[in-house]
What does this fold into?
Amino acid sequence: MPKDIITLRAKDYSQWYLDIVRNADLADYAEVVRGCIVFKPTGYAIWEAIQRGLDERIKETGHENAYFPLLIPKSFLTKEAEHVEGFAPEVAEVTRVGGVDLAEPYVIRPTSETIIGHFYAQWVHSWRDLPLLINQWANVMRWEMRTRPFLRTSEFLWQEGHTVHATEAEAEEETLKILNDVYVDFLEKEMAVPVLRGRKTEKEKFAGALRTYAIEAMMQDGRALQAGTSHNLGQNFARAFDIKFTDQNNTSQVAWTTSWGVSTRLIGALIMAHSDDEGLVLPPRLAPKQVVVVPIYKTPDERVRVLEAVDKITADWKGRIRFRVDDRDNLSPGFKYNEWELKGIPVRVEVGPRDVEKGSVALARRDVPGKAGKEFVPQEGLTERIEALLADIQTSLFTRALAFRNDHTVEVSSMGELKEAVETGFARAYWAGSREDEQKIQDDLKATIRVIPFDQPEKSGKCILTGQETGQQVVFARAY
Amino acid sequence: MPKDIITLRAKDYSQWYLDIVRNADLADYAEVVRGCIVFKPTGYAIWEAIQRGLDERIKETGHENAYFPLLIPKSFLTKEAEHVEGFAPEVAEVTRVGGVDLAEPYVIRPTSETIIGHFYAQWVHSWRDLPLLINQWANVMRWEMRTRPFLRTSEFLWQEGHTVHATEAEAEEETLKILNDVYVDFLEKEMAVPVLRGRKTEKEKFAGALRTYAIEAMMQDGRALQAGTSHNLGQNFARAFDIKFTDQNNTSQVAWTTSWGVSTRLIGALIMAHSDDEGLVLPPRLAPKQVVVVPIYKTPDERVRVLEAVDKITADWKGRIRFRVDDRDNLSPGFKYNEWELKGIPVRVEVGPRDVEKGSVALARRDVPGKAGKEFVPQEGLTERIEALLADIQTSLFTRALAFRNDHTVEVSSMGELKEAVETGFARAYWAGSREDEQKIQDDLKATIRVIPFDQPEKSGKCILTGQETGQQVVFARAY
It folds into this structure.
């Protein structure tokens, strides 16, 4: 597993990313299906870990899973005017079945507000039916012009929550609860990725939403990655699909809906937040395997003794540590070290004949490459030591990512400063510009307003573009 | 929740099934998307339980999950001649994207042998790459003429395993291992559904397979339901997609592949195997909730005391029993009993003010409706008692289903006997007929050969159609 196949981050960050995806065996380009990828087992296992962590939180906050059709009658898309405008250019259409043309084409869901809205209208009758709290795990399709594995693909996997509420306040509460208790909690605790939370501007909000909230993560090149969004849809979709309920006073009311989602793009976020020039770095809580044990031996006799020791060492790991013993005979220990570094397993344990004699092992942490991250420790108490090490790696990755973001976030007070700041990271600025101003900055600097952060300054200041006094700060960045 | 909305099985089994699906809130017809259904939360939770049980077994037998594209270039389907013949009439085609016609249409996967074969050809080079053992959880689409919730829908959810091997013997071993260690084990242990295992005839095998093995379950109307299939694809797909490897003698060899799948149709099997005229009956090991506790009270004071007792009773259930306390205030206990009977929760615990005084509860088992299944027991030792009861229900359901199948399986020795037997169940018969003979029986009796069972008689006998002496018995039945 030659290391020089990975481009250095400093040289070409974008190529580095593609090299990690290919060499850690996470995905394969599906050239024959435009803009799609194959999620290979190593990559898909990360998605399974993400699903587990999110699904648990989605259920703990009172939601149930369901599954709605892949195909949506094309006419449904047009029922919400902004929505169709946003999605029509990128939908795939099914026009023929078994060789026969259909009277009305279907689109493959780019997102499911419309088809789910159609059913909710039939399920919701009374205030007693509310709130309706449902999530779906599904594939969706948006024909993208420029694609990149995990970050932007024509087909991707995601969860999409769709809820119905009796009041605007309840819908707003739901929208924020998902952002904070599900998305932020998951990304920061499990993925060790610190996120900035806030509201999207009118220009950047979801097609058809009243308000969109988002979490934004900083990648190691200083760019932002939108990691999840939660939309208060107001009554827009409820009106379009006729979702009404009879309230406690026996009056018919239009309902309030929300939707929210995160996708396989999180795999891309994970790669770009933590990995290094040696390969993938996975946070222990999310890593499908947390520890790899590499036995070292030359003779058959050594093999027996070393594997015996490995059995003894790992005897109480089951249920505590997710591990793999790499006892493949045809590969050298060095080859194995490289492979597991490349694939991001958080901790490596090496056991050789001398370790058997001395009752020791070598312990290497993936987040600190080379000799600095390796120590020789006694076999006694190893399980507890590894558990502590895994917890330490998890914390370190988060702290490192947070420090990186802080180091690459500046408050700017002029357009010149903004231009410079978005070259390397996030720029906080007072902002009172229009939607058109926002577009102009995007055209000029390739940077967009990522969010209007929840934490706002106490004092007002001057808009960096118009000079107008405003209480509102926003965060600009270039984004994936 | 009025009971008379469920048609009696004896009156109209087919309508009874639809009534269960609707009234237990398992699925909703999606009239706007032809032949599709919405998997509602109660129904989808059963699928999640099925997924967990299968995924565990699929991984324990050495397979990893991955994900391949939904869309398949239309030309791929035609690469395996029998395959395209089998699936072309029911594929949905994507011909347009963002309003622009595509040069080559895609089909939505009806199954993924072709697209996966395409990638496997690129991944497999040497004998060291084999076996390649991958599974995928996905949605697939087959435009069906006559649909029925769960049993036959245009879009359905499933797992499809696809493996590559160096020899025919290894492919055969894999095909049978999946059938026995994954499918039979799961259906019999978790779903409590006994299955008949065997090989499909040439007429009934998968389009493109060398040999297809299947498991068949008997429903309560005596019909067979094909619950899972496992195909030894021989070298058919490997040849069509050029999956080759260099063997240990450095010679290029065509590989051997298998594929195998079970789908959301299993939800239909579960319903039809165990449920009764009162509603759904779920086996405890698979039931999303195993126990519902219904507190009974009239006054606020009673409410406090009863709920306190419920807290005490259920204190040590977490992690041992999956339960729900139904403390909804606006519904009567009777209404709740009916609802949970309809929805199939295996055990109900009733706690009222007198139970609080006497330290007792009422315990009702769903598989024995009415008074016969209800007993009054002390609160002391309740957890262990319920665990034992759940285990007993699981065994009873399996035993009952097995006894039913045995009672409705006969060995027949003439066409007259066959005709009569398939009216009520399975018919075992000596068979040496041709593919055309098989078709004729299907046309005449609406019955097909479900499998050539693995357990064959020691003596030979006369083919029921041709009178020819043969060692082969087959099982005929009408099927879903």
Observations:
- The domain at 409-477 of chain A is CATH 3.30.110.30 (Translation Initiation Factor IF3).
- The two ends of chain A are 29 Å apart (CA to CA).
